[in-house]
Amino acid sequence: MEYEKIKELMQDMSNSKLSSMDIEFEDGTKISMQKNNSEEVVAVRPKEEIKEEIVPLQKDDEKYIVSPMVGTFYLKPSPTSEPFVTVGSSIKKGDTVCIVEAMKLMNEIESDFDGTIKEILVNDGTPVEYGTKLFKIE
After folding, report:
1. What domain range is 33 assigned to?
2. What is the pLDDT of residue 50?
3. Are residues 133 and 73 in the same domain?
């Protein structure tokens, strides 16, 4: 299975309300994905070998909002709008904090926890990768 297709499955999984998914393909490849609060675990099992990849979403004691996909980061819903958040903004779990455009789709990124925006780590209009830290929260 191609890496890009696996990344698309991971993105779809992170954008859904599913907590786990198992897929078996005709060539014998098996994919098993499970979402937890702080990390996403992906196990890819090709027919002849076993490979596991664990992608931590937080690597230290600080809280971060990270990009769930590859795309372009935007702080505002449109060029003439006010930003969703600024440094010092109070946020609640589920609040939209930015947009990541992927394949011409505007994906609203929501906070996973309550807090205050301590730092915006990415410039508006910048490309981001899966797992890129977008905001530092206190």
Report:
1. 3-56
2. 47
3. yes
